[in-house]
């Protein structure tokens, strides 16, 4: 179990680094666009596209990290109240909510695979790359989110 917890923490750390690198790249590209635009020089066509793709990857990788931390979008008023009043009921409700979240993430993963397959036939305007590359963020992020949700279900007390 400790090896699994260590692996999950390592994957989370890697995702944090990847998301931060996407954010830094996006920031650098947008700043370069502004400087080039106002200095009279031409702005390379690909910069806006790469910045957009970096933003997509950053947001989706951060979503997986949020699932790992349990800070993804979920109304947790009822579980918190139940947890303070009746601990077993609060834990049971959290289990049910995490199970529902896992189901949603698996559906998004599956639909993301379909999106990538559909986008593989198309090319981006600026970079002329297959649109499967930017679309791949969806199944990758939700596969990781599913893994983290499953880990929350199985290793609830060991992950904190």
Overview of the molecule:
There is one protein chain. The chain is mainly alpha-helical and 160 residues long. The chain has one domain. The chain is 78% helix and 0% strand. It has six helices and no strands. Helix 3 packs antiparallel against helix 4 (87-119). The longest helix has 37 residues, at 2-38. It starts with a helix and ends in a 6-residue tail after the last helix. The mean pLDDT is 88.
List descriptors.
single chain, 160 residues, mainly alpha, 6 helices, 0% strand
Q: What sequence of helices (H) and strands (E) makes up the elements?
A: HHHHHH
Q: Uncertain regions: pLDDT < 50 for 5+ in a row?
A: none
β-sheet strand percentage? under 5%
Globular, elongated, flat, extended or rod-shaped: what is the shape? Answer: elongated
Structural class comes to mainly alpha
Instruction: Characterize the main sheet.
Output: none
Fraction of residues in helices?
A: over 70%
Average of pLDDT: 88
- In whole angstroms, the N-to-C terminal distance is 14 Å
Radius of gyration: 19 Å
* Domain module tally: 1
Number of strands: 0
Number of helices: 6
Quick structural summary:
This protein is 78% helix and 0% strand. It is mostly helical and 160 residues long.
Topology:
Blueprint: H1 2-38, H2 46-69, H3 77-85, H4 87-119, H5 132-135, H6 137-154
